[in-house]
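User: quick one
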Amino acid sequence: MAVTLSMFIQSVVGGVFTGSVYALVALGLTIMFGVMRVLNLAHGSFVMLGAYLVFWAYTLFHINPLAAIVLVSMPILFLLGMIIQRYLISRLFNIPPEDFELMSAIFCFGLSSLIINLAIYFWTADFRSVRYITDALTIGGISFSKIRIISFFIAILITASVALFLKKANLGMAIRATSQNRDSAEICGIPTRKLFLFVFGLGCALAAAGGSLLAIQYTIYPQMGDDYTTKSFCIIILGGMGSYLGAFAGGIILGLAEALSTLFIGAKFSEAVAFLALILILLIKPTGLFGERN
Amino acid sequence: MTARNQLTFIIALLTVLLALFPIIASGYGLSLCITLLLYVTMAASWNLLSGYTGYVSFGHVGFFGAGSYAAAIMIGRFGVNWLAASFFGAMVAAFLALLIGWPALRLRGPYFAIVMLGFAGVLKNAVILWKDVTQGGMGISLPPILDIKPIYYFMLASALSIIGLTHIITRSKFGLRLISIREDEDAASAMGINVTFYKIVTFLLSAFFTGLVGGAFAWYSSYIEPGSTFDIKVSIELIIMSLLGGAGTVLGPLIGATIIILGGEYFWTQFPLLHQAILGILIIVVVLFLPEGIVGFFSKDKGSEKRNLLVWMFKTK
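Assistant: Done. Structure below.
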């Protein structure tokens, strides 16, 4: 089948749309990893919780799904993240720093297994969807689903605000300082333990935002987050662990790479693209595209 | 009795008891025991690699699945005897280990862990997509088997071999070199140890045994499909079994697997819908409260083993 120009454009735009959600989810993961060194294998389950919160807010209380992202899903996951950090993850800090990363990975897997299976138990494993805006927009013979365009702009808006916050706000600067060197940050008077509460909350809220955007575009189910956990890790390694720009660029690159490989090679191989990119980058430049050697 | 004699005694006693077990066992008891020995073998294989060299593999289920599929294809398509097919599965798993180990074993700590996580995921997708050979998501059906005793003995032999091998390795220079890699790889390399060679050989052995029981499992269960054969949960279960029993110890995986399989059987019958959530809680509890594992917990007074066993196993520098 020949690839026409309009198919190519549609693929590229679709890839960037998908990539914007990847970028949002991966940004949360990379902030958590950069500051706390937690390998959060439960990230996908927070994506799933965010998606279900929008679904329930819309189904039970008829809250506008777009408003629910900011009013329901992100704040609740922010609180949940703080509680998890305060009562569970903070207990892991007794483990020596060099062993902390992998212990936290196993711990988070347990957490993820608990969350996903409770979701299956209470909400069943059925596929569900939020039917909000279902029509399409046609520009020059190429049509795009409106809800995907809206989602793209929301994703970019949230990513940009978080980037601005990290760059300019005092708290954002404290987060970047702690991520660069925790000891120096503590010496400068940054209460890192309290900061971790905020950081874990923020990471979860970003995962929830990504999940909410998935809920209004696609169908949702309790195991939907699993793919996002592995893909987010591929993205942050691709962009450089702990690099915010890297997470954004990595997300968009992965979205594009998947869309283009589906177009040119076939959908069969698009699943493996993230992994191949991961292996390649680790062999060629293990610090990632935007990572710095520490 | 010294610790070494104790160990030999326990293993000998267990072997005799387990070898006689099929005489009195019911069908249910025997199949439960097959599952148990399957997990003991896989957890011990994981422990040989990750417990001793410190390279934590999150993708061991990939070797299990590869072994299962390779054996099932040999049995189903070419009518090969199941024993030969299992060994073929083991060889395929070892070959894959060589393929992935060559790039992956250069990476340390979280990078290796994530690559192995992705490895299992890619194998699963490959099996789903390569429909001509694997029948994709439909899975492969094999003729049902009537007598499961041979499989029981096969699993028993595999479990004993890997535990015996681990026992021999820990008392050899080979094992010392593995531990030196775990403790400080750069120093080990500087001392003239060919770290790449030792890592790859251990990785191959570990994958071989995992693939071996994977092949026998395909014959035992008569039906395999990608979702459950490459379930990432299995990898994590192996890690938790080893951690609970004590990673980097010979008997740790045996103890951990026994507790989790028998406990899991109890929870499965009591709370069929929530047993996976209970496994999650168990993982959290083990990491928070028993990071040294049971064997580590009881051998605290033994000089060097006083140190946290997890500190050993996750040492990345």
